[in-house]
Task: inverse folding
């Protein structure tokens, strides 16, 4: 591709990039803007940001021109709990907005800000073995394999429970398995997303972002435990690498003990 007017070796030298290189048409309908982002990213499934705890948000790329330096900067934007989150991606230098959007989405993917098509991230950043990476890829939302195995094991012990509900009315955070009468809330935690001390490995790519994200997840976990404990609940967290049979026995014992305690107080 030959350089456009005012551009040399991919950099705008003497003139500012034209509006067509970065600015979105002001009268472009919202549906057309969505299609533009999908096309640049390679599909809507390539625009998903993981918020943790199985939640996702669809991101968009925003291009801004810094006239003083004649550079176009790309930002990734998404919403989390009603608040806009922004991450700087880098500078883009193509002659058209479409190409600059496409380059920006490539940067977002390479930095691990968004999910890759197979729902994985850079393999070397996440775990020490392919088996653990495969486990993490399957442990990012509701009805994950570790969660299903745990639920089956608990059910086989004769215990019944509710699935994916908020233990406390008005409390927005949901537990994977809930025993309302015994006030026991069980969380099936993925080793990567919740910072397992045995299997979590610090990301080598975009380490600041992932370190902060895992720390936020862990802080959220601690806050959830605190709120539930203060409300009289017992919180049990089960790592995805744990034996579902052994974990189920631990859960069953706790539920049985609390039920007996409740029954004795009622007498």
Result:
């Amino acid at each position: 591709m030959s350089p456009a007017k005012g551009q040399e070796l991919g950099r705008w030298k003497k003139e500012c990039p034209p509006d067509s290189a970065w600015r979105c048409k002001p009268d472009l309908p919202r549906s057309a803007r969505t299609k533009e982002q999908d096309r640049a990213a390679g599909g809507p499934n390539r625009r998903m940001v993981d918020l943790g705890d199985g939640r996702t948000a669809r991101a968009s790329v925003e291009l801004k021109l810094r006239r003083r330096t004649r550079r176009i900067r790309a930002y990734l934007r998404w919403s989390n709990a009603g608040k806009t989150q922004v991450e700087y991606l880098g500078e883009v230098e193509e002659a058209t907005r479409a190409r600059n959007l496409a380059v920006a989405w490539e940067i977002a993917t390479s930095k691990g800000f968004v999910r890759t098509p197979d729902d994985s991230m850079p393999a070397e950043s996440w775990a020490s073995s392919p088996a653990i990476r495969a486990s993490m890829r399957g442990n990012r939302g509701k009805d994950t394999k570790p969660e299903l195995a745990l639920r089956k094991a608990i059910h086989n012990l004769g215990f019944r429970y509710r699935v994916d509900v908020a233990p406390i009315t008005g409390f927005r955070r949901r537990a994977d398995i809930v025993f309302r009468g015994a006030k026991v809330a069980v969380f099936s935690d993925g080793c990567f997303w919740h910072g397992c001390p045995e299997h979590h490995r610090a990301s080598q790519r975009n380490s600041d972002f992932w370190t902060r994200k895992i720390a936020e997840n862990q802080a959220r976990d601690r806050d959830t435990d605190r709120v539930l404990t203060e409300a009289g609940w017992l919180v049990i967290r089960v790592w995805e690498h744990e034996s579902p049979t052994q974990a189920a026995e631990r859960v069953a014992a706790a539920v049985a003990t609390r039920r007996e305690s409740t029954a004795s107080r009622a007498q």
User: Anything to note?
Assistant: Residues 207-230 form the longest helix (24 residues). Helices lie at 30-41, 97-110, 123-126, 130-137, 145-156, 207-230, 244-266. Residues 1-10, 118-140 have pLDDT under 50 and may be disordered.
